[in-house]
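Enoyl-CoA hydratase
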Amino acid sequence: MTSIASETHVIAELRGRVGCITLNRPKALNALSLDMIRSLTQTLQAWKDDDSVLAVAIRGVNKEGPFGSFCAGGDIRFFHQAALAGDEALEAFFTEEYALNHLIHTYPKPYIALMDGIVMGGGMGISQGASLRIITERSKLAMPETNIGLFPDVGGGYFLSRCAGRLGEYLALTGRVLVGREAITAGLADGFIDSSRLPGLWNSLERTPFENGASVERWCASHLNTVAPPAPWPSKEVDRIFGLPDVPQIMTALAATDSDWARETAATLRQRSPLMLHVVLEQIRRARVMGLAEDLRMERDMVHRCFHLCPGADSETVEGIRALAVDKDHAPRWNPARIEDVIPAQVAAFFESPWAADAHPLRHLG
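Predicted structure tokens:
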């Protein structure tokens, strides 16, 4: 086994003819730093043009060892510190992260994501573009960004809007966690394997004489159960309510629906950033008719606005992170405070690009 990356938080090694990546930041649930994003990008670029590498597999570790946690997302404490300090590394983080997401979605070789444990936010960004998305009974998938005054980025507009019916709007607005096989039902995973079998599958990548990349992917797929269980959410109600034109109408419909699901969903939405609920609904609906690169450019515009429309501590995102992860008082002071108080001009501002097309930081994405 030869290592091609010295960054301790990203271990890259060739096992047989499979490039194997281990996210190795267990204390932070493998949350992505800028250095990790750069290491992943450098590794994938090198392997893309290396004929000795047939396919790529990626996993995470937890405090007990391999697997158990995939990636909890971007390093939100870094977002908070960088935004308050005016650190330009924050801009670089999102530009390079979204470019990495695009690289994974368009990778010319099989890219196999072993999504055991927590897979949220940025973790979805480095797994949803995989040619094979593998989950276990421990998998917990979500795009929970509205909880911190952000939006489901890293291509979230693209992959959530491709979920069946209006499931994408529902998952984006609520941040609902998909447990285990529920991710297959949602169309956000391809197959299931019991977590106890992951070490054997990983080790077999080195021992098995593969002919080509497709045979690596077929080998991994042969270990999976691809049966999707019935949806644990009321699909007809999701489509009826989350297909409504705007957030106030969604809230009115939930209030008029006599079910535990409707009451729980309404209570969840009332805790989220009112402004970002409006922004996210618009994001998903715009993204539904966009290609991947176009969506990522839109999300790059949006995330710039998240930190700069109201700079520093006045940013909805900075306030959301403060409440959830820094002070941990779970009492964000959202502005506006109510869903009904958000006006269209506040939403529209997030979709105005601060860059001319030929100066956009993601203009090179195909």
